[in-house]
## 1
Amino acid sequence: MVEYGVAKFVLPGQGESGDHHLVCCNRNGILVAAIDGIGHGEEAANASKAAVALLRSSADEPIISLVKRCHEKLRATRGVVLSLASIDPEHGMMTWLGVGNVQGVLMRGDAKNGNAQESLLLRAGVVGSQLPALQATVLPILRGDTLFFATDGVRSDFSVTLSARENPQRAADRILEQYRNGNDDALVLVSRLTGTSP
């Protein structure tokens, strides 16, 4: 139901990236997340991996309760910033939410019905440290619509070059290559809705 591509950059001198992602099926559809551990290196990676594990094990829950559970679980870590989306292909709906500075953009496959591009409203905070008031946004989503998440190792102007027609893996590689700022770990996750439930 979803085709996706991911591209990562690890800051030179670090053993692993603090930026991680998740794309997993749940009872209602697909959960997609991009997570950036605060700072970089092993401690940042440990915080993001803990968030991925919790999201995967609880993927059927509504995303506000997922973020609250992550917040409780990550209190002993450096914390993370994250953006996540729960896609319900059967009902043609996507619910998304961002805490911190992981950018989210939805590109419409067919822009005839309004905005070709929707941007995720990000709320300042750190999951595991300072959680803002959480409010998820619900959007209609159609086959061919493409979701882009990028951590702060990617410059924000990447969104001017997006196309819903570009292959997800090629798009992720291109965005990382052209817009990586080089002073932090970076991750680009591109997910296209390819079908709907029967």
## 2
Amino acid sequence: MAKSFFNKYLSVSDEVKSALTDNKPVVALESTIISHGMPYPRNLETALLVENTVRDNGAVPATIAIINGVIKVGLNKSDIEYLSAEKNILKASRADIPVIVSQKLSAATTVAATMICAKLAELKIFATGGTGGVHRNAVQTFDISADLTELARTNIAVVSAGVKSILDIGLTLEYLETFGVPVIGYGTDEFPAFYARESGYKVNYRLDSPEEIASAINAKWELGLNGGLIIANPIPKEFSMDKKTIDSAIENALKLADEKEIKGKDVTPFLLSEIKSITRGSSLESNIKLVLNNAKLAAEIARYL
């Protein structure tokens, strides 16, 4: 890629650059969880913990965001502090990137945008909490996350605790199958449901080691089968929430969102905030633990990539 592109649009930190030059493992991390997923100061604490978890497991973290119109791959601490405290940070998906960059605005990156930016920097693997998907009322609203179409087209492996349990998991998995996105369960035959380990739906394949997963990722792209993969990593048992409890909280939060006519990009942060309130904070603690668990697995896989 031309040097002018990097100078104009993309800034890769010295730490990430050095790791890529030396063929060391790098894990991409999103920033929406910092600006829109958690309250301050837990968002700041979690972002730094996630980066430390990646380092502790032998890889280099590359948290991604758009700061003043520049796509930054590998944020420094002051960038993370800015994203965690600033109230007017935008939320960028694929459709938002051109305007945010050209207008020199600042935005946290969703799963879709993080995949795009990670690919620009030639990264291979990305850890998040949960991916987006088909919303429960999509038959009426046609609300389907851009994360799914990005998984169909962009060569990045995504480690997640499944899709967010506020979504229609069955329809999401059908969508992924239609677009040829492999869904691999790490040590599980059942697709995890974010806060809970069980969803009632099966994964395409179960693989039990980071090395096996890395081998499948490499085989996919070496065969020219473009697009991403989902590595479904269940929340650790000790932090998993009771499925009936979380399902009830989700139903109540969805009803409230309908009553308040919350739509579009505002839906997910609203629902997560309401679920946190309904569960008296326990959902936030589970969210943090599953993100750390995904960062650990992504670093372990990255070592074999």
## 3
Amino acid sequence: MTQEQPVVIVVDDDPSIRKAIDRLLRSVGLRVELFESAQEFLQSNRLDAPSCIVLDVRLPGQSGLNLQRDLAAAHMRVPIIFITGHGDIPMSVRAMKAGAVEFLTKPFHDQDLLDAIEVALEKDRALRAEEKFVAELHERFDKLTTRERQVMQLVVAGRLNKQIATELGISEMTAKIHRSQVFRKTQAVNLPDLARMADKSSIANIKA
């Protein structure tokens, strides 16, 4: 079940830093989960809620940068805010190029962290909304028959009913009926909408 209340995951081996961040975030009504290592975080059960990670660069065992890399490789697109007491420019560039939302050097201002978390949580909400939409599109496209998929690909390519009929060896009326079914099942309101859906779900590239 989806938990709508956002959660901020804090991974830092310094208990005083964890406690300070925990107190700060709870003071503004955020839910917080604390971990002292990347391994401890990876072994935990993630809540299905908008989230982000406040991640120390230098950790015992697996480093924060390596955790960022491994999460990306596993397609776990959780926005990350790096914090470090030993930051340098090459390190921050590497983190930002890999998709980090922010790179803060300790000691940082509370408001800078809160601002970065707000950006990160909004980014995760957008990602989740996009993933939900794509999943819904796949459900709609799964309802299409093989012939309707063929017709849809031609419709998206800009073919008229007469051209679709000729290319598929069917009557123009049959092509028109299939076209109507495609729009009904996908809930597309017009051709640009259908093309956008097909592109987003990659269904147009699937050979029937």
## 4
Amino acid sequence: MTDDQQARPAETFAEAEDALLSRWPETKLEPSLDRIRAFTELLGDPQAAYPVIHLTGTNGKTSTSRMIDTLLRALDLRTGRFTSPHVERMTERISVDGEPLTDEEFVAAFNDVAPYTHLVDSSEDHPLSFFETVVGMAYAKFAEAPVDVAVVEVGMGGAWDATNVADAAVAVVLPISVDHATYLGRATEVGATVAREGMEFGVAARSPAVGGQVVSLQGLRARYDDVFLPLYGAHQAQNAATALAAVEAFLSGGEVLDDEVVRAAFAEVTSPGRLEIVRRSPTIVLDAAHNPHGAEATAAALDDSFVFSPLVGVIGVMSDKDAEGLLAAFEPHLAHVVCTQNSTDRAMPAETLAVTAREVFGDHRVTVEPRLADAIDQAAALAEAGEAVGESIGSGAVLVTGSVVTAGEARTLVRGRGRQA
């Protein structure tokens, strides 16, 4: 896209999306907050107009942020939520009151900040990146709404993450395996109060249930029993405990939350692409696990909550991820794996993934199908017929996983077919 094209206001979502994607990709980092600070200063520092709950960590940010958002709205607070990456559409990254921006709202948010992007581009050594621009859009939109509180996920994390121009009222660190001693040292430096999962708050009890699980959560101020969570796995119960503690910490009055409000809020939580069932006969489950830690949590949840035999995997990963570690985590749980790839340039070629998969699974348990749609069809046929391990017809299921993009593209494919049926 030329400078002249970028200077013109976007008229459609496609034009706004194209203008954003023409910038540095969010995977390309230049260690500096200078650009985003210059950008938000030009916008009037919108991120200072509301308190922020800031989430960082390797896994669990999106599910936890959605839980925090839902619970805050149950308390009659207007919320903004910034998340990355998106599952299906870029509009998902910016939500107000739990709803992603419409295409028209997204275009308006882009056009509101676009003139300032060019001022920053011309004054800094490097132009604003895609991620920095969307962060500015989100912060400006939240101030315009206005919201009572913003729930913000980091992108790549670290000191140079563009979301760090906001001064958080509550910081949430995920996953819980973070080095406590190091974190406590950092917290002491800035005078922060620390609450740790498993000590000040946590999961008191949990049991699988139809459509999710029933949990007892020990918060910072009270225990909440018989809470239905429509998500699967112990890791989601831990995310729920973290979300509850974050909201309690945010509320400065020290009040105990109403039991019924907590139950009602968690019962409404959704997290697309996180062990999400999108089809039956055969069952197709989507999960955004993209590293060994995430794959282990997903595998444990599958054993905990489902009885699938055979379970056939459709796996497509990004080239910069630990494919061997992810495959090894799933190997005991998958009867067969279909290696595929998503549509992005960062995708690991299916044939390359298959080389590693054969080392982990053995030749007879690996099939290669580069087109994701065909890979899902092939896996569904194996699951229905039980051909992978000779099981009875109709007993199997398909797990599509390996990256957020793979899960998102599969979601679009499968749900689109359902609407056409």
